């Protein structure tokens, strides 16, 4: 195989992966600084197209490699797993079992719900240089046979299954995501019509094809570059579309249902330019943020004046705003997301007008898309960023390609020695790691009501994956017979930075419960997991009260105290019946006059109540066993009430007066 052809491909695949450059106003001071910057690979040629933070706090990146392929003239999918400091933990290469597939390029990677990974890639039996014009379909007949290629691995990178999918002549997946019932991949195809179209395919958890769809019209150019799964197990995609042959390209965003059918579709972009969407993420208002490029050139190729493009879209698909960034040179955007402060970040590449090289380019905005700062990184003449993610501590990790300053080996097929590149940036003081900060009941609480919801507050707005029943990442358990048993959860309500967990049944009395929120049980709005499980323990009350029903009664007695009114409340059996308040009336005045107001505090069974007295005289109440009582209502002073378990102390006779009556009236 021609070594120069491989070199041309490595440069061309970068163009395939990057559409988008931007032009912006004068550069503002950049508070972002580099924490570390590492390259991964060998001396033959390597590239990275996507990086994500993993549940253990490290990172994983995917791309392609010639350095570690089975043959010097092959390209294999490359996956690099690192620790949080960027040090390599393991590295794996992948290709289909068929030796005919010599060109294998990993475009996207996501961590799956089982802790493993799903990789979206493309595979071909030939190495064909693809330039931006070919990618946009201006010459689709020149494209060789290419298949979609999905790889499912465990957490250690070991293959669990891998599968190729042939929809026709050319199928190039650009992004992949996990849904509740499997995985979805989107990309570019020339399989159906004599032009480029967008495609989506859906497979089950074992990789078996369930659905496939092609989007586009004959003789126009269409493609999909990214997919995000929404909370209702539907998908939103972005890419580009063409209204008619010869017309400029527009950013396209579409909402797909679980069967990949289009629910709505809209177009966006700078009028008169070729506009391409490369990245889409769901925002905190359930809208979308799209990153891409607005090309001034036609066809959309390298040109001064190309702009990094950022679009904010409402849940309905209506546009909120559009912004462009860059400089007078060539700038392109490839990856965007919402940040923890409500703003946005977009990453890509930039080239000054007089320069022949590119640098990595990051722009941070406020919630309205206005630039907060920008950062240019690199400096080795060929540095580009294709992916960025904000981390738990508020910093950023980005990945792409970087020129290796070490000269290539003498027989290298690459003219430019490229490596997979990862860089970590921080702005100002790092934000506290994502975590739970408080709960009601608090951890360690006792005497917790058995019918109250459990509220947990985090240090940033959150989302609950697969919410809508009993989320698997939120577990409420208790000890029964020395064995941990799980309590079902009816629903988890999310409000900003707080979740409210409602048990399916009333909790047991006098029982220790443990609420465990697993790392992936609650995510922040950037899909970052908790750094460690959040555990809350509490003990429920020993009995069911207090009852929400108060019992009110009154009694006529001889002597100065004409009668007594009181209110008793059942505390559920934990203590004796108690009297929160009482008033003493006299019939010597007209109308009846309150001569004493007493507040009775809780006492134990059969003990004398403590009395605080206002007015003349003094009195006390002795609780007894409850047998007869009346329900709440309006008490009339002229009525007589008897309660069989109460006695009234008379100051003058210095004895307890028996009850009067036996009349009992329900109010």
Structure, described:
The chain is mainly beta and 667 residues long. The protein has 3 domains: 3-427, Neuraminidase (6 Propeller); 436-540, Sandwich (Immunoglobulin-like), CATH 2.60.40.1220; 550-657, no CATH class. 3% of the residues lie in helices and 48% in strands. The chain is built from 2 helices and 47 strands. The strands form 12 sheets. The protein has a 5-stranded mixed sheet with strand order 30-39-37-33-34, with no helix packed on it. It has a 5-stranded antiparallel sheet with strand order 40-41-42-43-44, with no helix packed on it. A 4-stranded antiparallel sheet has the order 1-28-27-26. The protein starts with a helix and ends in a 10-residue tail after the last strand.
Features:
five-stranded mixed β-sheet; Immunoglobulin-like; 667 residues; 2 helices; Neuraminidase; disordered N terminus; 48% strand
Write the layout of secondary structure elements.
Layout: H1 3-18, E1 32-40, E2 46-53, E3 59-65, E4 76-82, E5 88-94, E6 103-111, E7 117-124, H2 132-135, E8 147-153, E9 159-165, E10 171-179, E11 182-189, E12 197-203, E13 209-215, E14 223-229, E15 235-242, E16 249-256, E17 262-268, E18 274-282, E19 288-295, E20 307-313, E21 319-325, E22 330-338, E23 344-351, E24 359-365, E25 371-377, E26 384-390, E27 396-403, E28 418-427, E29 436-440, E30 445-448, E31 454-458, E32 462-463, E33 474-480, E34 483-487, E35 489-495, E36 498-503, E37 512-517, E38 523-524, E39 534-540, E40 550-556, E41 563-569, E42 578-586, E43 593-601, E44 610-615, E45 621-623, E46 646-650, E47 655-657
Parallel strand pairs: 30-39
Antiparallel strand pairs: 1-28, 2-3, 3-4, 4-5, 6-7, 7-8, 8-9, 10-11, 11-12, 12-13, 14-15, 15-16, 16-17, 18-19, 19-20, 20-21, 22-23, 23-24, 24-25, 26-27, 27-28, 29-31, 31-36, 32-38, 33-34, 33-37, 35-36, 37-39, 40-41, 41-42, 42-43, 43-44, 45-46, 46-47
């Amino acid at each position: 195989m021609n070594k120069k052809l491989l070199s041309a491909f490595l440069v061309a695949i970068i163009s395939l992966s990057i559409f988008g450059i931007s032009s912006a106003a004068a550069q503002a001071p950049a508070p972002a600084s580099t924490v570390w910057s590492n390259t991964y690979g060998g001396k033959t040629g390597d590239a990275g197209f996507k990086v994500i933070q993993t549940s253990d706090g490290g990172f994983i990146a995917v791309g392609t490699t010639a350095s570690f392929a089975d043959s010097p003239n092959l390209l294999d999918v490359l996956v690099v797993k690192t620790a949080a400091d960027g040090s390599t933990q393991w590295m794996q290469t992948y290709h289909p079992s068929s030796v005919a597939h010599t060109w294998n390029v990993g475009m996207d990677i996501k961590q799956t719900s089982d802790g493993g990974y799903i990789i979206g890639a493309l595979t071909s039996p030939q190495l064909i240089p693809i330039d931006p014009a070919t990618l946009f379909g201006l010459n689709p007949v020149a494209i060789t046979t290419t298949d979609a290629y999905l790889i499912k691995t465990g957490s250690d990178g070991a293959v669990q299954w891998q599968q190729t999918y042939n929809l026709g002549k050319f199928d190039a997946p650009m992004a992949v995501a996990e849904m509740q019932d499997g995985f979805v991949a989107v990309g570019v195809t020339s399989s159906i019509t004599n032009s480029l179209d967008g495609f989506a395919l859906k497979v089950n958890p074992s990789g078996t094809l369930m659905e496939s769809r092609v989007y586009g019209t004959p003789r126009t150019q269409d493609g999909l570059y990214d997919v995000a799964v929404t909370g209702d197990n539907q998908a939103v995609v972005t890419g580009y579309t063409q209204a008619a042959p010869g017309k400029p390209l527009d950013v396209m965003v579409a909402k797909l249902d679980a069967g990949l059918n289009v629910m709505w579709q809209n177009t966006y972009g700078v009028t008169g330019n070729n506009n391409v969407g490369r990245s889409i993420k769901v925002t905190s208002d359930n809208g979308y943020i799209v990153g891409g490029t607005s090309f001034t050139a036609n066809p959309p190729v390298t040109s001064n004046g190309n702009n990094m493009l950022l679009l904010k879209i409402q849940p309905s698909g209506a546009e909120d705003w559009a912004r462009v960034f860059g400089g007078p040179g060539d700038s392109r955007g490839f990856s965007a997301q919402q940040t923890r402060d409500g703003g946005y970040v977009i990453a890509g590449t930039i080239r000054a007008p007089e320069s022949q090289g590119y640098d990595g380019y990051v722009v941070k905005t406020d919630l309205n898309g206005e630039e907060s700062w920008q950062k240019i990184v690199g400096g080795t003449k060929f540095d580009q960023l294709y992916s960025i993610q904000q981390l738990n501590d508020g910093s950023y990790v980005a990945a792409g390609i970087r020129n290796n300053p070490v000269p290539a080996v003498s027989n290298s097929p690459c003219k430019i020695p490229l490596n997979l590149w990862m860089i970590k940036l921080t702005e100002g003081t790092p934000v506290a790691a994502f975590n739970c900060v408080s709960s009601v009941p608090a951890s360690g609480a006792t005497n917790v009501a058995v019918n109250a919801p459990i509220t947990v507050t985090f240090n940033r707005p959150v989302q609950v994956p697969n919410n809508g029943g009993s989320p698997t990442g939120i577990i409420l358990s208790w000890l029964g017979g020395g064995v941990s048993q799980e309590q079902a959860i009816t629903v988890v309500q999310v409000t900003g930075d707080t979740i409210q967990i409602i048990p399916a049944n009333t909790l047991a009395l006098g029982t220790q419960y443990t609420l465990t929120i697993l790392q992936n049980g609650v995510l922040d709005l950037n899909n970052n997991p908790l750094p460690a499980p959040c555990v809350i323990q509490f003990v429920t009350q020993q009995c069911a009260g207090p009852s929400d029903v108060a019992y009110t009664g009154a009694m006529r007695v001889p002597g100065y105290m004409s009668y007594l009114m009181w209110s008793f409340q059942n505390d559920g059996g934990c203590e004796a019946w108690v009297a929160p308040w009482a008033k003493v009336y006299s019939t010597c005045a007209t109308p009846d006059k309150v001569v004493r107001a007493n507040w009775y505090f809780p006492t134990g069974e059969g003990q004398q109540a403590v009395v605080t007295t206002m007015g003349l005289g003094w009195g006390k109440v002795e609780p007894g066993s409850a047998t007869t009582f009346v329900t709440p209502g309006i008490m009339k002073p002229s009525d007589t009430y008897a309660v069989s378990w109460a006695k009234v102390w008379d100051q003058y006779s210095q004895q307890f007066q028996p009850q009067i009556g036996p009349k009992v009236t329900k109010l």
